[in-house]
Structure formats: structure tokens, C-alpha cells
Specification:
This protein is α/β, with parallel strands linked by helices. It is built from 12 helices and 8 strands. The longest helix is centred in the last third of the chain and has 23 residues. 31% of the residues are buried.
């Protein structure tokens, strides 16, 4: 299955499925090459009206699409595969966006030889700035990986990783936007504590975050060097960093990401 325009069915068009659907459309993917499925009639009408795609049932999607992008909740994946698994021809490509579920979970429920690609993306896909990690299952080829990259590149950046690293990816970038939002929320509150109006504090922090991220991406410098450039001897920044270290912010982040990684593993174990 070489890269090119294929018919893609988004099975389970919730938040992540809708991100993918809208991204493909923004990138110019033909609307007549996209299908969607939903569990609720109201949601189906909403998706059809918003994007102009045809909303079908799961078995119709399996019959008509060349690529099945499964984006249901992990706990619902088993029931879905019980329904569609026997109907999936082994030449179809299955792309899983189900957090925590390994490709083996799908392989055991699909016909022998069905190629599966595991994907972890994140919500900045809404502004075409997602980070998407892609891993091949045992039957997926280089051409399948290339097709998956073609589908997700419109949403931002992509990277190939061994599947063994996907739980760490989930913890780091899949959940990552939430950590940044929490940090921004705390810094805005700190700005208010220091006497700034909320809107001013928000504007200062958001632009600082955008600028800092751009420098990290474009300068090629290690974050330590960029931090040191802001940290003058006996200055304000080092005083703040001392307090962050005193309160264990670095250790808290390490523990938080380990907890997210462990939860991803639990989800996989509970789905078996």
C-alpha cells in the first residue's frame, strides 16, 4: 500500500478522531475519500454537517475504506473488534489511536497478517502543531508507515519510534499539553499574586511560552544553555530557580511522567 490518496474511515469520531478528520480535510484530502462512524445519531449529524463527510456504520466503513483509523476509547476497542474483526480483509491497514493498546491487541482480534500501525498524537493537532509518534506492528511494512506519516503530517510533526517506547510517548507528549496548561495556569495565578491583572498575566505568559518553544525548536541549543542565558549571577531568575528546586519541581515532573507511563501500561493490561 503505497502513499497516495486512499479512502480513510475514522472509526469512533470522538475528540481525537475529529482532530484527525479535520486535519486531513485542512490538508486537502478529498472529502469523498473520508468516512466517519459514531455511536450516537446526534453526533453523526453534527460531524456530517460540520465536515461534509459521509457518516456510516462500522461494517460499511470496513467494506469501503482502505485505511481504518480506530479512535475509540481503549475500553471500547475489544467490543468494536468483536464486531468488525471477522469482516476486515488482511490487506486493509488498521491505524490505532487508542491510548495504551499495543498492536498485538489488534493482531489477536484481526485476520492473520493484517497490518497495524500504532499512533499517539496530541491535541495541538487543532492548530496543526501536533506531535505524532508512529510505530509499526509485526505485519506493517515501510509503505504502511509512509502512508501513516502522510496522514498525520498535516497535523504537525511526526516521528517513528519502536512500539516499546509508545507508553513513554503517551506520558511525555500525548499527555504533555496538559502539563504545560497547568504550568501556565499556575504562572498566571502567580502574576495575579504579584499585582498584575489576569489578562495581562495571561498575555505575558502565553507569549513567553510561544517564544521559548520557538527558540528551543529553531536554535538547536540544549535547554540548559538557553536557561543559563537567562540566569544572571545573583539575579532574579536564579532566585526563582532555587525555589523551584527547593520545592522539588524537577522530581515532581519525573514522578508524574512515570505515573502516566504506568497508567498507560495498566490500560493495556485491563483490556486483555
Amino acid at each position: 500500500m503505497a502513499p497516495g490518496v486512499h479512502t480513510v474511515a475514522v472509526i469512533g469520531t470522538g475528540k481525537i478522531g475529529e482532530l484527525m478528520l479535520s486535519g486531513l480535510l485542512r490538508a486537502g484530502w478529498p472529502v469523498d475519500r473520508l468516512l466517519a462512524t459514531t455511536r450516537r445519531t446526534g453526533r453523526a449529524e453534527e460531524i456530517a454537517a460540520r465536515y461534509g463527510v459521509r457518516v456510516v456504520d462500522n461494517l460499511t466503513a470496513v467494506a469501503e475504506a482502505e485505511v481504518l483509523a480506530v479512535s475509540v476509547k481503549p475500553q471500547d476497542a475489544g467490543a468494536l473488534l468483536d464486531e468488525i474483526g471477522p469482516k476486515v480483509p488482511p490487506e486493509k491497514l488498521v491505524v490505532s489511536l487508542c491510548a495504551g493498546l499495543p498492536t498485538g491487541f489488534f493482531a489477536r482480534r484481526l485476520p492473520e497478517g493484517t497490518p497495524v500501525i500504532r499512533v499517539m498524537t496530541n491535541t495541538p493537532a487543532l492548530v496543526d502543531e501536533a506531535m505524532t509518534a508512529i510505530s509499526a506492528g509485526s505485519h506493517a511494512t515501510a509503505a504502511h508507515l509512509a502512508l501513516a506519516e502522510e496522514m498525520f503530517k498535516p497535523l504537525g510533526a511526526t516521528i517513528r519510534v519502536p512500539e516499546s517506547q509508545q507508553d513513554a510517548v503517551t506520558a511525555l507528549s500525548g499527555s504533555g499539553p496538559a502539563y504545560f496548561y497547568l504550568l501556565v495556569e499556575a504562572m498566571v495565578d502567580a502574576g495575579i499574586l504579584l499585582g498584575l491583572p489576569r489578562q495581562v498575566a495571561h498575555e505575558l505568559i502565553v507569549q513567553t511560552a510561544i517564544g521559548s518553544a520557538t527558540m528551543l525548536r529553531d536554535s538547536g541549543e540544549h535547554p540548559v544553555k538557553l536557561r543559563e542565558a537567562v540566569t544572571s549571577p545573583a539575579g532574579t531568575t536564579i532566585s526563582a530557580i532555587r525555589e523551584l528546586e527547593k520545592h522539588g519541581v524537577r522530581a515532581a515532573l519525573l514522578a508524574a511522567l512515570e505515573a502516566a507511563r504506568d497508567r498507560a501500561r495498566e490500560i493495556a493490561a485491563q483490556s486483555e
